[in-house]
Amino acid sequence: MEISYKLQDTSHKCSGGVHICLMPIFIDGWWRKPAIKIILTLFTVAIIISGCSSISIQPRKFFILEYKHATENRALVSKEPHNFTVRVVDSEVSGTFNRRQITVRTSENQIMYDFENLWADRLPNSLANLVFQRVNRYNVFNRTIRDYQQPAKYEIVTIVNTLEYLKYANIYGARIDMEFQLRRTSDNLTVFLHTADRTRQIYGDDIEMFVQSINDLLMEETDIFITALEIYIDVIENDDEFINRGVLSSRSFLEQEQNRNFRTELLDGEQINFMGRLFIPFKTDPINEPFFYFLKIFL
Predict the structure, then answer these.
(1) Cys-Cys link to 286, which of 60, 112, 113, 204 (CB 3.0-4.6 A)?
(2) CA gap 113, 117 in Å, rounded
(3) Cα 164 → chain centroid
(4) pTM
(5) Domains of the chain, CATH where assigned
(6) Which residues does residue 145 pair with via DSSP β-bridges, in sequence order?
């Protein structure tokens, strides 16, 4: 069957010419059969192509920084808190790392953002909350707050320069470069400082272990900061002339060996009510290494 066309003059000129188009003739208000066949064929091909090209959507994972009571060092809990109020303010995170996406460093001068593994909360808020809970539970000050509306004698400020997941070839790790500051609210002057640049190796490509390592490193450095801060406050209360020399660092009060491990504690006679993950390196593929769970430790 042939398809008949008619010539139709558009009766207008464009660029100096007359447009002539071919219009298929309608019969009984419907297309002729060959046109229907073409449309149905194209529609069938589209369905086949869409069915064959299935797209797998990778679900996003959200991670949190959570306070763990098991990491506390009971030797640092103060029996007599210092009689003033301290405010823990939101952390100041470098713009490169202040994102919901976890930052992955793949080489010395290259990073990438992981859009499948995200922080569940804003880093300035979640980091400061961990520091606040640690200082509060150690009973360092008479009152520790997060509220900006209430007066405080000092502020604890955490500045994060780097927070990244290291992924060099087959080497993985967690790195955090940060500093703790004690600021006097009367003149906004930093009077005490503790700096830390920590890296912890991770056995295998494991984002969950990266988050746990960042969590632990932050708490360890907070313990060191609190230990040195206690000594500094004693110097202030004794009106020692040493405080007139300017900003003091934690290195002024702590020996190098004192900074190595603040999580070592004796669990003698205590009920262990938490579960953890223990990695024991083998010569086999880390992915195939089994997990070990300690239900109780006998000393």
Answers:
(1) 204
(2) 9
(3) 8
(4) 0.68
(5) 5-52 (no CATH), 61-264 (3.40.50.10610)
(6) 87
